[in-house]
DNA sequence: AAATAAATGCAATTTAAGTGCATTATTGTC
DNA sequence: GACAATAATGCACTTAAATTGCATTTATTT
């Protein structure tokens, strides 16, 4: 069991009630969540507060935003890979066109790609669209 | 010089004035364009018409939409690769965080990635963020 | 406990995307 | 070429997500 309060503090995030709740909520989700998803997970909550909370998490490196092509931003926890750090945001994402869910394939790294002269890579974003194992029934 | 009218017809698109103009406009652009970019390129034009035109082009396989993470859709012509077809939309895109431009790196294909059992790939989308050769000055 | 700084709640704005419908233009048929 | 049928266009409007302003509340520092 992780000490959520400590995790937030470690990232210079003040552990307020809502932040603790949201962090736990994100922890429990297998898939990336939209702001709407998050909003639905809370009884009484201001959309704006949730928005700013997730943005704070993002800025502080707790979550990453995923653009899966649906036009709505989704967010998922940065789940540290055992032994590694920092390059963890170079994993790829899978978007299921059937159930509309998007998930991190944390141990599928994006292969290195060499670009033409002059191009400097800062970040990479790979989204694979298709049918997930739940929906393909395989 | 390509016969634009014929290109449209080949894709079952009626060659109206606006469509011919927009196709030429897209041809002349090195980078992917937002709807706003396109709108700015025309003197008198209805946003809606341009919107529906680009969507028609997309449906008929003349252009592809690019989601570069800025939250605004961009569009670029499907420029057929000599000798190949169909798999041409598996090239990758580069988004420059300096000039905000996005371009197709047509001859950089997305490498094959093997997914866990049950996952079926239908489409892939790779966007590399960084600094382009114009902005890096290299 | 007071002063300071940050987080929250609510209202409102911005912006892109998309729809409905009447009008206009284009195409196919006679 | 005229006419009917079909599609494209223009304009107004709606939807939905993202984002900001500001007053209020809560937490932190001294």
In words, what does this structure look like?
The structure is a homodimer of 138-residue chains. Chain A is an alpha+beta fold. In chain A, 30% of the residues lie in helices and 26% in strands. The first copy, chain A, is built from 5 helices and 6 strands. In chain A, the strands form 2 sheets. In chain A, strands 1-3-2 form a 3-stranded antiparallel sheet. A 3-stranded mixed sheet of chain A has the order 5-4-6. In chain A, β2 and β3 (74-77) form a beta hairpin. The A-B interface holds A 67, 69, 71, 73, 92, 94, 97, 105, 108, 110-111, 113, 115-134, 136-138 and B 67, 69, 71, 73, 92, 94, 97, 105, 108, 110-111, 113, 115-134, 136-138. β6 (120-131) of chain A pairs antiparallel with β6 (120-131) of chain B.
Q: What's the overall average pLDDT of chain A, rounded?
A: 91
Biggest interface, and residues per chain?
A-B, 35 and 35 residues
Read across the widest sheet of chain A, the strand sequence of neighbours is 1-3-2
**Structural category of chain A:** alpha+beta
What's the overall geometry of chain A? globular
Q: How far apart are the first and last residues' alpha carbons of chain A, in Å?
A: 33 Å
**Computed Rg of chain A:** 16 Å
Low-confidence stretches of chain A: none
Number of helices of chain A: 5
Total number of strands of chain A: 6
Main sheet specs of chain A: 3 strands, antiparallel
Order of helices and strands of chain A: HHEHHEEEEEH
